[in-house]
Prior knowledge:
Layout (H helix, E strand, L loop, with lengths): L15 H12 L4 H18 L2 H10 L2 H8 L10 H12 L3 H30 L4 H4 L14
Amino acid sequence: MYDQPRPNPAHHAMTFDQMLERVRYEGAYPTRERAAEAVHNVLAALGRQLTGDERVDLAQCLPVEAALTLTAQLPDTRHLTGWGFVKDLAERTGATPATARWDTGAVLATVTRLAGPDLLGRILRRLPGGYALLFGQAELRRPEPAAA
Length: 148
Protein backbone atom coordinates (compact mmCIF):
# COMPACT_ATOMS: atom_id res chain seq x y z
CA MET A 1 0.00 0.00 0.00
CA TYR A 2 2.81 2.47 0.81
CA ASP A 3 4.86 1.71 -2.28
CA GLN A 4 2.18 2.87 -4.72
CA PRO A 5 2.50 6.38 -6.12
CA ARG A 6 0.08 8.89 -4.74
CA PRO A 7 -1.66 11.38 -7.02
CA ASN A 8 -1.24 15.08 -6.46
CA PRO A 9 -3.50 16.30 -3.69
CA ALA A 10 -6.51 18.20 -4.99
CA HIS A 11 -5.60 21.79 -5.75
CA HIS A 12 -8.17 24.46 -5.41
CA ALA A 13 -8.92 26.09 -8.72
CA MET A 14 -7.85 29.70 -8.82
CA THR A 15 -9.41 32.41 -10.93
CA PHE A 16 -7.17 34.81 -12.83
CA ASP A 17 -8.17 37.59 -10.42
CA GLN A 18 -7.16 35.41 -7.47
CA MET A 19 -3.89 34.58 -9.20
CA LEU A 20 -3.16 38.29 -9.72
CA GLU A 21 -3.90 39.01 -6.05
CA ARG A 22 -1.59 36.18 -4.97
CA VAL A 23 1.21 37.44 -7.25
CA ARG A 24 0.61 41.00 -6.07
CA TYR A 25 1.01 39.81 -2.48
CA GLU A 26 4.08 37.62 -3.23
CA GLY A 27 5.81 40.40 -5.16
CA ALA A 28 4.61 43.29 -2.97
CA TYR A 29 3.48 45.08 -6.13
CA PRO A 30 1.74 48.42 -5.62
CA THR A 31 -0.96 47.77 -8.23
CA ARG A 32 -2.86 44.90 -9.78
CA GLU A 33 -1.68 46.08 -13.20
CA ARG A 34 1.96 45.64 -12.17
CA ALA A 35 1.19 42.10 -10.99
CA ALA A 36 -0.59 41.35 -14.30
CA GLU A 37 2.45 42.62 -16.22
CA ALA A 38 4.73 40.31 -14.22
CA VAL A 39 2.40 37.32 -14.78
CA HIS A 40 2.26 37.94 -18.51
CA ASN A 41 6.03 38.44 -18.91
CA VAL A 42 7.11 35.47 -16.78
CA LEU A 43 4.57 33.00 -18.18
CA ALA A 44 5.44 34.04 -21.74
CA ALA A 45 9.12 33.43 -20.97
CA LEU A 46 8.31 30.07 -19.36
CA GLY A 47 6.20 29.15 -22.38
CA ARG A 48 9.28 29.64 -24.56
CA GLN A 49 11.26 27.14 -22.45
CA LEU A 50 8.76 24.46 -21.42
CA THR A 51 7.65 21.80 -23.90
CA GLY A 52 5.91 18.44 -23.98
CA ASP A 53 3.35 17.01 -21.60
CA GLU A 54 4.60 19.21 -18.78
CA ARG A 55 3.63 22.33 -20.75
CA VAL A 56 0.15 20.92 -21.43
CA ASP A 57 -0.34 19.75 -17.85
CA LEU A 58 0.80 23.08 -16.42
CA ALA A 59 -1.57 24.97 -18.70
CA GLN A 60 -4.43 22.84 -17.34
CA CYS A 61 -3.54 23.91 -13.78
CA LEU A 62 -3.55 27.63 -14.57
CA PRO A 63 -6.48 30.01 -14.95
CA VAL A 64 -7.49 30.31 -18.62
CA GLU A 65 -5.94 33.75 -19.13
CA ALA A 66 -2.60 32.58 -17.71
CA ALA A 67 -2.70 29.32 -19.67
CA LEU A 68 -3.22 31.24 -22.91
CA THR A 69 -0.16 33.38 -22.20
CA LEU A 70 1.93 30.25 -21.51
CA THR A 71 0.80 28.30 -24.57
CA ALA A 72 0.76 31.19 -27.06
CA GLN A 73 4.58 31.14 -27.12
CA LEU A 74 6.55 29.11 -29.60
CA PRO A 75 9.18 27.05 -27.79
CA ASP A 76 12.65 28.52 -28.14
CA THR A 77 15.42 26.41 -29.64
CA ARG A 78 17.81 27.76 -26.97
CA HIS A 79 17.49 25.89 -23.69
CA LEU A 80 18.29 28.53 -21.09
CA THR A 81 19.56 27.80 -17.59
CA GLY A 82 17.69 29.43 -14.72
CA TRP A 83 20.04 32.43 -14.76
CA GLY A 84 19.81 32.60 -18.56
CA PHE A 85 16.02 32.66 -18.19
CA VAL A 86 16.23 35.68 -15.87
CA LYS A 87 18.71 37.51 -18.13
CA ASP A 88 16.56 36.83 -21.21
CA LEU A 89 13.46 38.09 -19.39
CA ALA A 90 15.31 41.25 -18.36
CA GLU A 91 16.44 41.90 -21.93
CA ARG A 92 12.98 41.33 -23.41
CA THR A 93 11.20 43.55 -20.87
CA GLY A 94 13.84 46.25 -20.47
CA ALA A 95 14.06 45.51 -16.74
CA THR A 96 17.15 45.01 -14.63
CA PRO A 97 18.16 41.42 -13.88
CA ALA A 98 17.21 42.03 -10.24
CA THR A 99 13.71 43.13 -11.20
CA ALA A 100 13.33 40.21 -13.61
CA ARG A 101 14.42 37.81 -10.84
CA TRP A 102 11.93 39.38 -8.43
CA ASP A 103 9.09 39.08 -10.95
CA THR A 104 10.04 35.49 -11.71
CA GLY A 105 10.00 34.53 -8.04
CA ALA A 106 6.63 36.19 -7.40
CA VAL A 107 4.93 34.53 -10.36
CA LEU A 108 6.53 31.11 -10.07
CA ALA A 109 5.71 30.89 -6.34
CA THR A 110 2.06 31.03 -7.35
CA VAL A 111 2.59 28.62 -10.25
CA THR A 112 4.23 26.19 -7.80
CA ARG A 113 1.10 26.17 -5.64
CA LEU A 114 -1.13 25.55 -8.65
CA ALA A 115 1.04 22.83 -10.19
CA GLY A 116 1.56 20.73 -7.09
CA PRO A 117 4.65 18.72 -6.16
CA ASP A 118 4.40 15.93 -8.75
CA LEU A 119 3.98 18.19 -11.78
CA LEU A 120 6.57 20.62 -10.45
CA GLY A 121 9.07 17.76 -10.17
CA ARG A 122 8.40 16.76 -13.77
CA ILE A 123 8.78 20.37 -14.93
CA LEU A 124 12.10 20.75 -13.13
CA ARG A 125 13.41 17.50 -14.62
CA ARG A 126 12.57 18.79 -18.11
CA LEU A 127 14.22 22.20 -17.69
CA PRO A 128 17.99 22.81 -17.49
CA GLY A 129 19.67 23.50 -14.14
CA GLY A 130 18.89 26.59 -12.11
CA TYR A 131 15.10 26.60 -12.32
CA ALA A 132 14.39 25.00 -8.95
CA LEU A 133 15.46 28.15 -7.12
CA LEU A 134 13.22 30.24 -9.38
CA PHE A 135 10.27 28.06 -8.31
CA GLY A 136 11.27 28.45 -4.65
CA GLN A 137 12.64 24.91 -4.36
CA ALA A 138 16.01 23.55 -3.26
CA GLU A 139 18.40 23.01 -6.14
CA LEU A 140 19.58 19.43 -5.97
CA ARG A 141 22.66 18.30 -7.86
CA ARG A 142 21.89 16.17 -10.85
CA PRO A 143 23.87 12.93 -10.92
CA GLU A 144 26.76 13.01 -13.36
CA PRO A 145 27.09 10.09 -15.78
CA ALA A 146 29.61 7.55 -14.60
CA ALA A 147 32.90 7.52 -16.48
CA ALA A 148 33.37 4.36 -18.48
